[in-house]
């Protein structure tokens, strides 16, 4: 909460007695020393002599709020609104602010809304106060400037924030303007001062504006980071490096992290002193450091270490919350925790990071629980909905290694003996590939394919918006990122639809995917495969063949995508393996059309690539058996069984 207005400063239009002025000065001194009980006693004396003074009532409400440890937010809000009604102010009607004397009310309520994370409403209110900026008292003017910039950053308006910072610096930080505005010496008469007094005044002015100047530079760096202007960030940070305060060091570490210099970022994080000032500021440096270290481990492709570090941050954060909440059990929906603790809580961001780490550690169910909590706050983020869909997909099928493992048995069993011995082949290679007949609601948050389909639909709708919210992630979704995200969402939607036995929806997603010329070649390849499978399920093998013939099967695949495929441990992960999968699907379509000879030729090419130690689908054996039997080539079929089915040799 903001510092209260000076009790002796413009309390009322009526004259203030010397006794009241003395009480006000004593109250201010006690307030600055954080002796709120004593401060309240002085204010009560003033209230007795000035019972209807709204400024006294406002200061009293603020001091009582501080005395409670900022834990009675509901009571304070009610008292604050009552004071505003007394001076005939409607906080909901911003146009009612016409007198600069009333700015203090709107500023305090803006701070209150800011801590409740009602950023849009707080910004509208503080913008109105900012229009009176040149008429405000020095310390209040500084606070209004910092709050209006902070809220522009929080509402994802970094460009507007930069413009504000430039103007504020020109008016309040440059020596000439600052001297005139902050001392009130421009174009007005006043008492004469000797040179010593002028020097002291100038020194005090420099001390007062230095912290303000540093804060503005830090805000400028944050805004430039949001715009990915890293060189300009570095130039600004160089001007305040000597300060070595924790905020500057965190910004330096984040800059190196965003540049991809993870070792440098880690070295900076290790230099940040660990302070336990959570009760005072709502921030804990150990929580922030552990969170940032987890991000570094994540990009170093060490998800387990990332998970461990972020888990430490969450445990510490929850402990801090419990410690400040235990002694305060006041009634009211906003009470029980200090106001600045409510606003400074980063549990949702921590849960988001934990969910991402668990997903990359191949723990989809645990990741889903974390991300479903994060999506309640960041429900406008399409990438977050995609991550939830990926949790559902991974829960359904963590890996497709078994689809390329030729050690799996093809035989259900053997009956009879001698010349009457019969081999019973499996009707399905894998028992869990049947479509589920259970009625599962897509609206129930659980890691199911049904809920995954809902997540994909949400992601598609959000991606079509003109402005895309990527919170709490940093990187803005510019055109290349948006194209990659589009490809991931559409391919995930097609896969889920196929798993649910819905070829119509799968074909729709696949066709949208293939229409784009900006997606990468992996997504294009998946689009062809999924579209062909959807067409086959719709009994359209001819169209499926045409779609498969258009695929390039990873030709000239981007190097970074190839590396990503290897790290994800999902096959096919190389061009020859992708061609084997493509040829297999084409052979299935040709077989359904009746072109058994052509299908057989394709299978021979696949088998030759297997000899070269290329990963090929195990399904080719079953398809080859079917084709040979259909062509009457019994001996070849028996040989194929003996080569690939150990049970047949017994």
Total helix count?
Answer: 30
Q: Main β-sheet: number of strands, strand sense, barrel status?
A: 2 strands, antiparallel
Structural class estimated from helices and strands: mainly alpha
Q: What distance lies between the first and last C-alpha atoms, to the nearest angstrom?
A: 82 Å
Q: Roughly how many Å is the radius of gyration?
A: 34 Å
Query: Mean pLDDT across all residues, rounded?
Result: 83
Low-confidence stretches: 1-13, 175-195
Report the count of strand segments: 2
Strand content: under 5%
| Biggest sheet: strand arrangement | 1-2
Query: What share of residues is helical?
Result: 55-70%
Gross morphology is: elongated
Describe the structure.
- This protein is an all-alpha fold and 650 residues long.
- It has 30 helices and two strands.
- It has helices spanning 18-32, 36-49, 54-67, 73-86, 103-115, 119-130, 138-154, 158-173, 175-183, 195-226, 230-238, 246-259, 262-271, 278-281, 285-299, 303-325, 339-344, 347-360, 364-374, 382-396, 449-463, 479-499, 503-515, 521-537, 541-549, 559-568, 575-593, 596-611, 619-630, 634-644; strands spanning 411-415, 422-425.
- It has a two-stranded antiparallel sheet.
- Helix 1 runs antiparallel to helix 2 (36-49), helix 5 (103-115) packs parallel to helix 7 (138-154) and helix 22 runs parallel beside helix 24 (521-537).
- The longest helix is centred in the N-terminal third of the chain and has 32 residues, at 195-226.
- The N and C termini lie far apart (82 Å).
